[in-house]
Each structure stands twice: as C-alpha cells, then as structure tokens.
Design brief:
Alpha/beta knot; two-stranded antiparallel ribbon; single chain; about 20% strand; Trp Operon Repressor, Chain A
Length: about 230
C-alpha cells in the first residue's frame, strides 16, 4: 500500500510515521507513506497557497492551482483507488471505512486548512471526504494521521498478533469487552473468575455479554445502526 499525504505542514507528518505500528509496517515494506508540501506546487514567489474567499466570507481559502498541480503530479505516476479530502462536513470516518481502505493499493489524503479548499477541487477531483468528528481542527494533518493509523494496523503482517485488530472495538459493531492482565488481584481488586477458568467457551460468552453491556451503556447508537 502507498499513502500520499498532501499538506502545507509535512513536518507534522514525518515524526508520527516513524513510531510504533506504522514504523514497523514501513520497515517491512507493507506500506509507503509520503508527505508532499503543497507549497512546492505554487507559482507564487512567496509560496502562498491561500487567498480571500469570494463573496466576502471571513477566513482564507486554499487556492485551486497548487492543489490541482499536486494531484496531477501524483496521478500521472500511478492509479489511485481513493483521493480523500479531510473535512468536518465529510462522512464520519469509521472502522468500516478503515477496513475498506485497507484493501486499497494507493491512496491520496488531502489535508484542508483555513476555511477549506476551493470547492471546485471537491467537485471534480476528490473521490471521498471524511471527518474524524463533529469538531473543527486547525488543519487536516491530524485527521490524515488518524486515518492512516487506522488503516495501516489492518494490513496483514503490520501487527505481531493479527487477531488483535479483528477483536478491536467497532469491528463487529460492538465495543470491546474489558481486558485485564497480571496480577490477578491488586489492592483487593480482582480479575473476573471466568477469565481465570481456562474455559474458552465460557470466556467467549462472557466477553460477548460484556461487549453488549458496554455498547448499550456507552454507545447505544451503535446498536441502532446494526
């Protein structure tokens, strides 16, 4: 898999991809991740990539030309399965979306800034738009990293225990059950007896019941979706 991130702050991207699962996945050549500076594609001598909005709205808008040139530069070299724009008014990014994206070969993620990008880019060149939550970030870099992390950990071989990703919250529409580790008792706080029983059938039944309880209590909306 290859992920190309278009941003005006590539220095935000580079440190993150050199840690933990993403770093190991890159070392195993399971994924390539590149940050491209949109300013490299502007003809403005001051590297300006924004201008005032038509209509007099407050805030600045990212220019169409450098974004279009950056996208053309990448798409002229390979075929992309998705050209994604990070935006608070996009579709809510979900585990299902991450699962789907993990099957792609090449992805572009365009990080928005200011009041957003010239809408003509969204109308003509973007294939997917995602939001990571109902709030506004300074830029799309954090959203791009969240999506990249969620996708890369699903790639076969990215995690030492591949079953771990399949039992995460949201994979089956439920929250994950509580987890415990040693010691079995601490300060009088005990691990549930069933987890110490060695009975796999009982443990699986308990975990499923706990997932249902936690989902009903904490995220009943997930049950409504199912």
């Amino acid at each position: 898999m290859r992920i190309d991130i278009l941003t005006i702050f590539p220095e935000i991207i580079d440190p993150f991809i050199n840690f933990s699962i993403i770093k190991r996945a890159r070392e195993k050549k399971l994924v390539e991740i590149y940050a491209h500076n949109i300013r490299d594609f502007t003809t403005d001598k001051h590297k300006k990539v924004d201008d005032y909005a038509y209509g007099g709205s407050a805030g600045m808008v990212m220019l169409i030309e450098p974004i279009e040139k950056a996208l053309n530069h990448l798409t002229s070299q390979r075929k992309y399965d998705a050209i994604i724009y990070t935006s608070p008014d996009g579709e809510r990014f979900s585990q299902k979306a991450a699962n789907r994206m993990s099957t792609f070969e090449n992805i572009i993620i365009l990080c928005g800034h200011y009041k957003g990008i010239d809408h003509r880019i969204r109308e003509h060149l973007i294939t997917h738009e995602y939001s990571v939550g109902d709030y506004v970030l300074t830029g799309g870099e954090l959203a791009a990293l969240i999506m990249s992390d969620a996708v890369v950990r699903l790639l076969p071989g990215a995690m030492s225990d591949e079953m771990s990703a399949l039992t995460d919250s949201f994979q089956d529409g439920l929250l994950a059950p509580p987890v415990y580790t040693r010691p079995a008792e601490y300060n009088g706080w005990k691990v549930p007896d069933v987890l110490l029983s060695g009975n796999d059938a009982l443990i699986q039944k308990w975990e499923f019941e706990q997932s249902l309880i936690r989902t009903r209590t904490l995220r009943p909306d997930l049950l409504d979706e199912n």
